[in-house]
């Protein structure tokens, strides 16, 4: 068994298949986002104030230079991040959009660029989540059931927008990157990312539906406890295998 197969075996087959499908589509997703951002930056350059025009030009030139590397690397980076999320073994102390900050001390251990990276990643995740509310809610419900959770836990969905946003922002950190470029790049990547993720999420819902994974519920309900001497107990309401 290879290294990838060994890692995949730690996640149940249905969830592993979803992650594999998402990773397979990731090269086209990031390529589309990059191409869209390059075009938009090129169009905006003539209308940019003179003092910032060179920065915009450098940003789209840098994107062209990075495109192949990103298309090659993004799928595996996304696969690993999704697997870590599915196993629920991401670092606990995180100021990322996926987890609580470890508090004041965590902020004293990172520099300004790291804080800016987390803010930009969080902003992208929030924008995508707002744009994908309906298909994401459907995927959250079925993915929670596939993970064996009693109720819907959106923060456990390994394909949630914040995972994509974090991996993409990590990818942007590689190499000699001007501090202003990621913000410019991400500004024009939101729309194509949302378009491709909406399509991908609907495909994932169909995949899970075909696998007979029913949607988990969004709430806990209280029901009478049969045979109990005391009052009725609470149980989780979940529709699924």
Outline of this structure?
The chain is built from 8 helices and 2 strands, in the order H-H-H-H-H-H-H-H-E-E. The chain is mainly alpha-helical and 241 residues long.
Short descriptors:
241 residues, mainly alpha, two-stranded antiparallel ribbon, 8 helices, 2 strands, disordered N terminus, disordered C terminus
Tell me about the biggest sheet?
A: 2 strands, antiparallel
Unreliable residue stretches: 1-9, 91-109, 227-241
Helix content percent band: 55-70%
- Beta-strand portion reads under 5%
* SS-derived structural category: mainly alpha
Strand order of the main beta sheet, please?
Answer: 1-2
Radius of gyration: 21 Å
Give the oligomer, counting copies of the same chain as homo and different chains as hetero.
single chain
Distance N to C terminus: 29 Å
Average pLDDT, to the nearest integer?
83
User: What count of helical segments does DSSP give?
Assistant: 8
Describe the global form: elongated
Q: Strand-and-helix sequence, N→C? A: HHHHHHHHEE
Give a count of the beta strands, DSSP E runs of length 2 or more: 2
Task: Give me the secondary-structure topology.
Blueprint (H helix, E strand, L loop, with lengths): L2 H6 L4 H32 L5 H37 L17 H5 L3 H20 L1 H14 L14 H13 L7 H30 L5 E7 L11 E5 L3
Antiparallel strand pairs: 1-2
Task: Please tell me about this protein's structure.
There is one protein chain. A two-stranded antiparallel sheet has the order 1-2. 33% of the residues are buried. By secondary structure, the chain is mainly alpha-helical. It has helices at 3-8, 13-44, 50-86, 104-108, 112-131, 133-146, 161-173, 181-210; strands at 216-222, 234-238. It contains eight helices and two strands. The model is unreliable at 1-9, 91-109 and 227-241 (pLDDT under 50). The protein is elongated, with a radius of gyration of 21 Å.
